[in-house]
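In the current project phase, we have settled on a layout for protein records. One protein thus recorded is set out beneath this paragraph:
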Amino acid sequence: MLALTLSLSALALLPSGPLPKDDPAPVIVIDEAPAPIYLIRASEVIVRPGESIQDGEVLVQNGMILAVGKGLTAPEGAILVEGQTVCAGFIDPWSSLGVDSASVAEQQTDASMATSSAIDLFNQDHYRTAARDAGVLLVRSQVGKDAWLGGLGSVLESGPAGAVVLEDACLSFTCGITRSGNRSDVFDRIGEADRVGSTIASGLKYRESQVEYAHELEAWQKTIDEAAVKLEKDFKKAQKDREKEVEKAKEKDKEFKEERYKEDKRPSAPKFDADKEVLARAAHGEIPVLVEVHGTQELRALLASTKDLTRLRLMISGGTNALPFAEELAARRIPVIVQPMPTGAPSSSEEKGHDLGLAAALADAGVQVLIGTGGAVAGVRDLPVLAQLAISHGLSEKAAFEALTIGAANAFDLGDRYGTVEAGKHAELLVLNGSPLGGRTTFVFTGGTLVEL
């Protein structure tokens, strides 16, 4: 069969009416320019924290890493990009970048409210650009930032497209924080922490009702199937018996009444509840639960109220007074997102007494430490600076780099796609003229695009 390959310009030459029946239908192939291939060559390719390739190369196409190694052979026409260091782009796990301001400030949120539905693509270009230029290529943003129950956080690209890479990154709560300039008394703050555990636990009952329904439905279907087999097996006998009963009724001049088959009632499905569905997922560890909490009393109450939720993947942001609980945090594998604040930086009452050495002290105690900018949209560009502050107060450079890359990616179940420089992962990459936290970024790969800075 003859196949005709037509370019876009040739489409206008096709006849407007139907083709003659004897002629073969043309196969239309629209020529598209292949996506450019980039060969990144650097003195050091940091694959992951603690693992590097000296004089290495990275091959990138269509926003994906094709290969990583030494002496890679690039296809003809590949675009060469050179720098001193290549590493994974930074991730801010505590942000509101990309979300419209009204949704960020919303207080009447619920568990199923999704940050991904409140993306602002029109008014934050300068913030996105600043974040990208600082090497922050992904952010975990949140609606209801200060709400007790803030809904589902999402991970977004910081680029102009603001693409959502993960809609349900976490379920968010806050306990004992200042809202609208006011901080509640200590008993209310402890009450908020207590309610976190009981609220999440309500999802367990909802999931149990779904599991029970599934078993009841399976048993019902089995009974119906068995009855159908029996009815089919006994059909001929039943038909003869019916004929005899009809004849008897006629002989007695009586009306024959059919015996009705009564089928077992189908079990009723539990009523769908979008909020309880999210809480069930959180209780079973299918998504992490992130709680902003600072005070000693609130932290103690939170840890106590969630202790029996054995599958819960709890994370803490802030944690100003978390150090006394470091042993328990490490044992329960609860990460803490710290926000190293420069001396004199404005802070709310619950953040007073913040110690710039907190990140290092927690890490030394075996707690996984992440670093975030605290949720202010304008602060995302400061993420590398905050990491440097933590380093200057005792956190190792390796731990800080891990916190900004694969540590944050793993915390939100994105480690298989982001956070390291490996074949098969998304090419969210930085090319720098020095170390990741000390050099200047010269090129950024994000969203499949190369940007020269």
